[in-house]
Amino acid sequence: MANTKISPEVADVLRRSTITDNVLVLPPGQLPRPLYEAVDKILKNAGGKWKRGTGHVFTSDPRPKLERALETGIGVDEKKQLQAFYTPAKVAARVVGLAEVYGLTVLEPSCGEGALIKECVSQGAHYVHGVEISPGAGRIAVENLYDADNVCITGRDFFDCGLSELGLYDRIVMNPPFAKGQDLKHIEYALRFLKPGGRLVSIVSPMTPEKPKFWRRMSALGVHCYDPVRLEPDLFKESGTRIATAIVIIDKL
What we know:
By secondary structure, this protein is of the alpha/beta class. The protein has 2 domains: 4-81, no CATH class; 89-252, Vaccinia Virus protein VP39 (Rossmann fold). The protein is built from 10 helices and 14 strands. It has helices at residues 8-16, 33-45, 63-72, 78-82, 89-99, 115-122, 135-144, 163-166, 182-190, 212-220, and strands at 4-5, 18-20, 23-25, 49-51, 55-57, 74-75, 105-108, 127-131, 151-154, 169-174, 194-204, 223-225, 229-230, 246-252. Strands 7, 8, 9, 10, 11, 12, 13 and 14 form an 8-stranded mixed β-sheet that branches. Strand 4 and strand 5 form a beta hairpin. Helix 1 packs across helix 2. It is elongated and about 65 Å long. The termini are far apart. The mean pLDDT is 89.
């Protein structure tokens, strides 16, 4: 879903809507179908999910986002802005299985709603630390993992975290953003938090390990990277994208 221009009609509906406890309720009366679809698109862009009998439900107060959208006239697609296409359970199981986390400490540098962390716990990790830049996604991760006493979620930009804060880990599992080479940038930064003899397993764009730059950087960092694992098409369809993906496995020597 792309960023969307807000028409005067849509803006009027949004201004007349009511928000209580992170739930937005549209004005009384039935909107014409095209107008409803346009409003719904803006609300979904802002992170709202329609729940029958309730309204559009958000993970946090949507007023700041909607006020900004009304001021600018643009409904920003937050998922695309953050490249936040979260990891389906089937993919998470594969990534964590390749990481072999049983009994080990694990870092997830962009944990989203906690899919990879949940799988790490399921596969017997000793301790898992997740970092997430989006407050909404971070709150969902905490809720999804509330009964796991071996998990910690830090709400901030991973690139603002240092060794003194996070420490070193036996394993790192990750699903970073892909756009403009961000996956390689995230991998390079994450490797500083990996113990010698540790393993990093990351979902990446299939084009990333095709580039000589990737292999040059791995060589310069003194790590061993295995041949990439190509994932089946459309595995991320349920997360809102049909982007092709691969998995890289990197051992720190």
